[in-house]
Specification:
- The complex is a heterodimer.
- Chain A has helices at 5-8, 21-33, 50-60, 76-88, 114-124, 142-147, 158-172, 178-188, 192-205, 211-214, 217-232, 250-264, 267-290, 296-308, 326-350, 355-360, 365-368, 371-376, 381-397; strands spanning 39-43, 63-68, 96-101, 129-133, 148-152.
- By secondary structure, chain A is α/β, with parallel strands linked by helices.
- The longest helix of chain A is centred in the last third of the chain and has 25 residues, at 326-350.
- Chain A is globular.
- The N and C termini of chain A lie far apart (66 Å).
- By secondary structure, chain B is of the alpha/beta class.
- Chain B has 15 helices and 7 strands.
- Chain B has helices at residues 8-11, 24-35, 52-64, 83-94, 117-129, 148-152, 164-177, 184-194, 198-211, 217-227, 231-240, 244-257, 262-273, 280-299, 303-318; strands spanning 42-45, 72-76, 105-110, 134-140, 155-158, 181-182, 214-215.
- In chain B, strand 2, helix 4 and strand 3 (105-110) form a beta-alpha-beta unit.
- In chain B, helix 8 packs across helix 9.
- Chain B is globular, with a radius of gyration of 23 Å.
- Chains A and B meet through helix 12, helix 13, helix 15, helix 16 and helix 18 of A and helix 1, helix 9, helix 10, helix 12 and helix 14 of B.
Chain lengths: 405, 323
């Protein structure tokens, strides 16, 4: 692999950009109605396709592209010298022109006067300007915001990233199983660039067994040692500081403790250990609600010494501690429940109730939503299939057949 | 099969003040406020399915007529509970003028008790600043979860749990419209299953009608019992038999499969304990433990950890060594 995947598979044209349809149509409207608004800000997290979209528009509309990014100095005199001519001149071959001011967050204090100059130029430009930024709501952009149309670009949906990864694997002639790809997706948190970079590393390592450890390896070694002391050596005088050497925060540590308590303790020790874990969690809840961070002392205490003194017995067995499985299970279940959730969301809106409340009462939904209602709620094909399945399942499971006439 | 073109909770949602059952005093007061085209900020407190959202919808329809949709914003605080909602959606809507001849718009904040304290604080000033262009109607289950400054800005109406005769009236009305045959004891069964929640009654009625138009008590009960999976009982039995790991796994499975919240799980545990085949004295101790854990669950942040702690206590009880 010579070219990094992220460049090799950068969307060349608009049709290659997935999962940002509304943003694309908003950009199109902006370009069509130019110069009603002269500049557009694409604001959103990294790896969502902001730059790709701008580039793709330039390509598809056959515009000449004039790009300035964070690697360029962007102070007042530079902008005046470079950008000012660009917004006036006609393109060399009489083509349309698009100005891209990439990575506006990178206009820093060293780019003295850059932002005011940019604002001044926006008022004069004869070509559309697209500005990309991760967080346009910073105070320093407040004047710029007033001059621009703002489009929020959201994180990519998991299934969008998943499908792209799948396609790339296919093109690269590498088979990766779905579970591996799902882990990459989960870890990317909606960042396409991160996902592709991780995939590249994995392809280069070429070892599937590695995947689960891929993200967490270093962290895990440190928690193993800490858990060993907590579970096996209650007399360690440094017990309350045992987690200091790990690279995890207490919330993650709590998950590790939770996963491993049942194989360490039984009977009254099990119950005692869980009460300590439960108490630690209460302090965590209080930290969140009251933002009183000193409670972390107690959270830490109950996770370490509290757990440790659940029993006086010392074990000397070697143990391989298990990685927390609950978060992954929750995530997988959420993937499964996605269809139900989208149906419930539509139903809740039509019936003036919250999604939460609708979810609570969702059991009878397959019987309540019928063909005509499906149309009215604008359900998608896959959502209808889901309801059909469930309808059958409810009728079989609850022996409702005997009531049918 | 009965004709089913709509979701009945919407189809039979009362459209006029007169149609609303069971809240006569409130309706009378709110109706006269609405007639004067000048409602104060309102706070509707009361159990689910007693007509809070319905009354809010009736108010805006009566006041704004055909323009009601333009002048009305409905926000579900339990879905969007952060301060951002107040700062953005609420403010954006509140600051523009109303269409038509009523001088203000209406924002309905459903389940306002789910709003964070910060969001409620942010609402204080918003409610005052935009009083001339916007009135707030809030609904909640418990008014105690609404901060005092907000309560003091609202006229508070407390909705009663619907009585059997009111719900029965509604059931018979729908049954007649939909050509259903339904006996007296079926009506009672529907009411009992619903715990006075009219929305639940109508959903249950529609689900039953999708099976057959002659609805029997048995059909209703079958539907109700299948809606409450007996899985929790299995979880508890695993725990009492001493198999903590199995109990824990089953519990997680139940919660994830139907995305049930921990607060709902602990409610069914509390109900289920009394039905277990164990000594009565033990039931009392386990219920005490359940209450203790429910308290911890409300205070804490990770519901599953708290439930596990409860299961561990059940394991201990199963071995007869709980104090």
């Amino acid at each position: 692999m010579t070219l990094p995947l992220i460049e090799k598979y950068r969307a060349g044209s608009l049709k290659d950009i997935k999962g940002q349809d509304t943003v694309i149509s908003d950009i199109r409207t902006f370009l069509k109605t130019f110069p009603k608004k002269r500049a557009l800000i694409l604001s959103g997290p990294v790896g969502t396709g902001k730059t790709s979209m701008a580039l793709a528009f330039a390509k598809d509309d056959e515009c000449e592209l004039f790009e300035l990014n964070a690697s360029d100095l962007r102070n007042r005199s530079k902008l005046e010298a470079v950008l000012a001519p660009a917004i006036k001149q006609k393109s060399l071959f009489n083509k349309k022109k698009l100005i891209l001011m990439d990575e506006a967050d990178g206009i820093t204090t060293s780019d003295r006067g850059g932002l005011p100059e940019l604002i001044a130029l926006i008022e004069k430009t004869s070509f559309p300007i697209i500005i990309t930024a991760n967080d346009i709501w910073k105070r320093k952009f407040s004047l710029l915001r007033k001059k621009c149309k703002i489009i929020a670009v959201k994180e990519l949906k998991d299934d969008v990233i998943f499908n792209i990864l799948k396609e790339v694997c296919l093109k690269e002639n590498h088979q990766k199983d779905d579970k591996t790809l799902q882990l990459i997706v989960k870890n990317s948190k909606g960042d396409m660039r991160a996902a592709l970079n991780d995939l590249q590393t994995l392809l280069e390592l070429g070892n599937d067994a590695f995947i689960e450890e891929f993200y967490e390896r270093e962290k895990e070694e440190s928690i193993f040692d800490a858990l060993k002391t907590v579970f096996q050596d209650p007399t360690d005088p440094k017990i309350t500081r045992i987690y200091d050497s790990t690279k995890m925060d207490l919330n993650e540590i709590a998950l590790w403790v939770e996963e491993n308590i049942p194989s360490e303790y039984s009977g009254s020790a099990l119950a005692k250990a869980y009460i300590s874990l439960s108490t630690a969690d209460i302090f965590r809840g209080r930290i969140y609600r009251q933002q009183y961070w000193r409670f972390m002392v107690y959270q830490n205490f109950f996770l370490s010494a509290g757990i440790s003194c659940a029993t006086k017995l010392k074990y000397k067995k070697f143990r391989q501690y298990k990685r927390p499985s609950r978060i992954l299970k929750i995530w997988l279940a959420n993937q499964k429940n996605a269809k139900k959730k989208s149906i419930v969301a539509k139903y809740a809106k039509a019936c003036h109730m919250s999604k939460k409340k609708a979810m609570k009462n969702s059991f009878l939904l397959p019987l309540i939503i019928n063909k005509e209602t499906e149309d009215k709620l604008n359900l998608e094909e896959r959502e209808r299939d889901y309801l059909l399945d469930k309808r059958g399942a409810i009728i079989i499971a609850s022996q409702l057949n005997k009531f049918r006439i | 099969m009965a004709s089913q073109n709509e979701i009945w909770t919407e189809k039979y949602r009362p459209q006029k003040f007169e149609d609303l059952v069971g809240q006569d005093d409130i309706v009378k007061k709110v109706q006269s406020l609405t007639k004067a085209l000048n409602i104060p900020h309102l706070l509707f407190a009361g159990p689910a399915g007693t007509g809070k959202s319905t009354l809010a919808l009736i108010i805006v329809r009566e006041m704004f007529g055909v323009h009601w949709k333009e002048n009305y914003l409905e926000l579900n605080a339990s879905d969007e509970r952060g301060i951002d909602v107040v700062r953005q959606k609420v403010k954006d809507f509140a600051r523009t003028k109303a269409l038509g001849n009523v001088p203000f718009k209406v924002i309905f904040l459903d389940e306002a008790d789910a709003l964070t304290k910060e969001a409620q604080q942010a609402l204080r000033r918003t409610m005052e600043n935009y009083t001339s262009t916007c009135r707030f109607v809030m609904s909640c289950n418990y008014s105690s979860k609404i901060i005092d400054p907000l309560q003091s800005r609202c006229a508070i109406f407390r909705f009663k749990l619907l009585e059997e005769k009111d719900v029965a009236k509604r059931i018979r009305f729908i049954a007649e419209k939909e050509n259903l045959t339904i006996s007296e004891d079926t009506v009672i069964a529907l009411y009992e299953a619903s715990e006075g929640d009219c929305r639940r009654v109508i959903n249950l009625l529609q689900a039953s009608a999708s099976i057959t138009p002659s609805i029997t008590k048995e059909l209703v009960n079958t539907l109700v019992s299948s809606a409450k999976p007996g899985d929790i009982k299995i979880v508890l039995e695993y725990a009492l038999s001493g198999d903590f790991l199995k109990a824990k796994e089953k519990l997680l499975e139940v919660m994830l499969k139907e995305s049930i919240a921990g607060t709902d799980i602990i409610k069914s545990i509390q109900r289920e304990v009394w039905n277990l085949q164990i000594d009565d004295e033990l039931k009392v101790r386990l219920t005490e433990k359940t209450g203790e854990i429910e308290f911890r669950l409300v205070e804490g942040s990770d519901e599953f950890i708290q439930l596990e702690a409860l299961l561990a206590a059940f394991v201990l009880a199963g071995k007869g060594i709980i104090k």
